[in-house]
């Protein structure tokens, strides 16, 4: 395996388009992954930075960031979109910027190899090379062969086989119509916090999907669903989950067609079970507040440690945030937000981001006064 040089990193940064992406006039600082585990020593090089810094458990990774593992080390990167990358020793990978928010996560591997356990599709390539889309759910080995100009080697290790096209079916046999949409999670809400009752149940509900014969519910203890708790097939649009303890639980739902084909899973939702009845620690702005100024200051009740403030154009503050800042204070200010509607929340910083709110707050920016 050839040695990796810092000069190569700097040169390839331009090829990978490192740095925050600007879309629709808004600077998107996209958290695409988190370091969920590290055995040995690893390093991260932030987009447009010429130096490496230590990688640790809980380190957030944005588009344009580089990660490398040293000799005898291995890192587990949990993808926000769903899935996990197990990066082998002496490997270098890049979370590449995407042209649009709807694109799959893009990963470039400069050196070494990784194992991708996917619940959502990604695109892989060598920096500057052609991309390959890895479909999900499946497990792949992705390696960067020695020699310049060569593309990545992809080996499918496990997963559902692609559907057989109609042309390959016996005469008179038709494929069942596929489910083309996914259920939307309804309740509990985004980053819901509930008091844990060891004898109790949590009711999960979602929207119906046309053509669905039933629904597949998945629950897990981590964002990438590698620590699964239970799967269930139900005919209605609700299910009672029996939590197994305190802490983070994650759930999502997919529609199952009449022929048994599994559709795409909807967006996963986080659920936090706490020992005491949770309280809302956000102070201002109030939910639904309308600001006539582009600059907004957020405040909350501090309980010690560091906090991550996230503001998003969508309903989930963590999904494609336009503002993402860590502070040890109890306030944070964003200097300029384009006119529009946002959701925002504050999280206790750590390997798992723990919300301080009972539900994300809505903020409307109407533009500066004339």
Can I get a quick summary?
The protein is mainly β and 370 residues long. It folds into three domains: 6-159, Jelly Rolls (Sandwich), CATH 2.60.120; 185-274, Sandwich (Immunoglobulin-like); 282-365, Immunoglobulin-like, CATH 2.60.40.
Q: How many helices? A: 1
What is the oligomeric state here? single chain
Contiguous runs where pLDDT drops below 50 for at least 5 residues: 1-29, 160-176
- How much helical structure, as a percent, in the residues? under 10%
Report the count of strand segments.
Answer: 33
Instruction: Tell me the count of domains.
Output: 3
Mean of pLDDT: 82
Largest sheet: 13 strands, mixed
Q: What is the overall silhouette?
A: globular
Nearest-angstrom radius of gyration? Answer: 22 Å
CATH class of the largest domain: Mainly Beta
The portion of residues forming beta strands comes to over 45%
What is the fold-level CATH name, i.e. the topology of the largest domain?
A: Jelly Rolls
Instruction: Give me the CATH architecture of the largest domain, please.
Output: Sandwich
Report how far apart the termini are. 62 Å
Structural class: mainly beta
Please describe what this structure looks like:
A hairpin with a 7-residue loop joins strand 19 and strand 20. The protein folds into three domains: 154 residues, Jelly Rolls (Sandwich); 90 residues, Immunoglobulin-like (Sandwich), CATH 2.60.40; 84 residues, Immunoglobulins (Immunoglobulin-like, Sandwich). The chain is globular, with a radius of gyration of 22 Å. The chain is built from one helix and 33 strands. It is mostly beta strands and 370 residues long. The strands form six sheets. Strands 3, 4, 5, 6, 7, 8, 9, 10, 11, 12, 13, 14 and 15 form a 13-stranded mixed β-sheet that branches. Strands 17, 19, 20, 22, 23 and 24 form a six-stranded mixed β-sheet that branches. Strands 26, 28, 29, 31, 32 and 33 form a six-stranded mixed β-sheet that branches.
């Amino acid at each position: 395996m050839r040695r990796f040089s810092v000069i190569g990193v700097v040169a390839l940064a331009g090829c990978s388009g490192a740095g925050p992406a600007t879309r629709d006039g808004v600077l998107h600082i996209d958290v695409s992954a988190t370091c969920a585990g590290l055995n040995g020593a690893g390093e991260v090089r932030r987009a447009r930075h010429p130096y490496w810094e230590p990688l640790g458990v809980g380190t957030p990774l944005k588009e344009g960031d580089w990660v490398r593992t040293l000799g005898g080390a291995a890192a587990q990167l949990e993808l926000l979109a769903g899935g996990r990358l197990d990066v082998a020793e002496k490997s270098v990978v890049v979370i590449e910027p995407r042209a649009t928010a709807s694109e799959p996560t893009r990963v470039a591997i400069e050196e070494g190899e990784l194992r991708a356990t996917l619940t959502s599709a990604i695109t892989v390539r060598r920096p500057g090379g052609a991309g390959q889309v890895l479909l999900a759910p499946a497990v792949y080995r992705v390696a960067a062969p020695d020699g310049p100009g060569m593309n990545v080697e992809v080996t499918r290790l496990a997963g559902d086989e692609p559907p057989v096209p109609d042309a390959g079916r016996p005469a008179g046999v038709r494929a069942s119509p596929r489910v083309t949409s996914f259920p939307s999670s309804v309740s509990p809400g985004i980053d819901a916090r509930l008091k844990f009752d060891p004898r109790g149940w949590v009711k999960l509900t979602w929207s119906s999907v046309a053509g669905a014969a039933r629904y597949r519910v998945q629950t897990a203890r981590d964002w990438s669903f590698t620590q699964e708790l239970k799967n269930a097939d139900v005919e209605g649009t609700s299910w009672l989950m029996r939590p197994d303890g305190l802490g983070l639980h994650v759930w999502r739902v997919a529609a199952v067609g009449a022929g048994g084909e599994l559709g795409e899973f909807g967006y996963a939702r986080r659920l936090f079970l706490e020992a005491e009845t949770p309280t809302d620690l956000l102070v201002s702005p109030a939910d639904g507040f309308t600001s006539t100024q582009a600059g907004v200051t957020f405040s909350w009740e501090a309980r010690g440690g560091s906090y991550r403030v996230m503001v998003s154009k969508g309903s989930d503050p963590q999904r494609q945030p336009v503002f993402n800042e860590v502070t040890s204070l109890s306030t944070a200010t964003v200097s300029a937000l384009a006119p529009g509607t946002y959701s925002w929340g504050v999280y206790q910083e750590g390997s798992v981001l723990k919300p301080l709110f009972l539900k994300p707050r809505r903020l409307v920016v109407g533009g500066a006064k004339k």
